[in-house]
Fold this protein.
Amino acid sequence: MATADFIEAATALLGPRGFTRDPELVGPWLTDWRGRYTGKALGLASPDSTAQVAALVKLCAEHDVPIVPQGGNSGMCGGATPDDSGAAILLSLRRMNAIRRLDPQAREAVCEAGVILQTLHEAAAAEGLRFPLTLGGKGSATVGGLISTNAGGTQVLRHGSMRAQVLGIEAVLADGSVFDALTSLKKDNRGFDLKQMLIGSEGTLGIVTAATLRLLPALADRAVLWAGLGSVGDAPKLLAHAERIAGGALEGFEIMPRHSLEAVLAHVPGSRNPLAGEHAWNALIELAADRAQADALPALAQTLLESAFEAGLVEDATIAANEAQAEAFWLLRDEIAPAERALGPAMQHDISVPVASMAAFIEDTSPLVEGRFPGVRVVAFGHLGDGNVHYHVLAPEGAKPGEWERSEGKEISYFVHDLVTQWQGSISAEHGIGQLKRDELERLGDPVQLHLMRAVKQALDPRGLLNPGKLVPLAREPARP
């Protein structure tokens, strides 16, 4: 009867479009993007305003109904997928997709949680501005999801992760109250910076409904370089050289092994190797300039390339001749994950180590993993400028998808995470913890840090209704029927 009362009240609050139990409408959102987790839900709630979210959360609190917030459902760690109890509702913020305000003079935009990243890019560009965060899933990732996971992307080197882009935030807390801190202040010393606590909390402390985001002047020009390297050990030397030569113009620095490039070339029709020969490693470098520095950018790129040759840092290199070629270079980087997924099962690790250690980590740990698990192959690539390694371990030939991941694949991940911890790194660089890495965070996390996280969770969500089972749960999270 209590469940029936809740369903009736939620339907009355949100209307038939705002709350549904139709399996055909709910079903597509019950499985995570990677296909690793599938759950059940009491229903799918799709409010269209912060007021509706607040009223719904209050209703859930009254009826003890858990809430699993969901943005574009493009996360990598199962953080937006309910468990199999069917007790929770899915809370979709996709209908809340308004850009409430875009102020060219203040260079900021107030976006609701359901705004698609690509939509924000296009809106900013129409005003001669840009939002300085992008990633391969920009066509589906939402502002709320990006904030909740503190997403990174390819421009962290220069501009920082999502945390650095958020000037203000609006969120609904577990009791239905609204935390309204959308006003952007450069100086505010009234105690804790509570918005920062919500960023990266994966919906476990509050439900982000809107945010004030910083914008930058649009790029007037960019130069995209592709370099072939003899070893991954040459990459940090080239990065240091690029930082000395290009300074603040250095926007991105990505590295990938030959295997990843070959996988993309085989997977993407019409793609081409930017260089004539084959190289053990490749670096993708982007320099960017606004209008004031645009005229000097071509010469700067040429100087960087020529001086890298003279210093013996590259085996071969080229500069994209036009914007289409620049996009083609970046496509080779963005398509690595789907290209390698097409090759068969793999354990994909989103990890980070200190920037200065990244190349050595790849060099030293790859043979350890391959030696301990015969037949596997380590393929590592990523954002050298911020130490983020996408550390993929490809399954041996003939491995059965699903079965291999659940058996040897798990052991591989334990081993990789142990290595990362030994190197003073993190088991999650930019995709969050979700349910995929929750137990590993419990196993490897600093006890003091875990205690503090639990204390915050207990204070803000004492009944464990917000995204239960994700990140760090309460010490004794309430059992669900």
The radius of gyration is 23 Å. The longest helix spans residues 403-422. The chain has four domains: 2-92, 99-217, 221-337, 344-422. The CA atoms of residues 220 and 291 lie 5 Å apart.
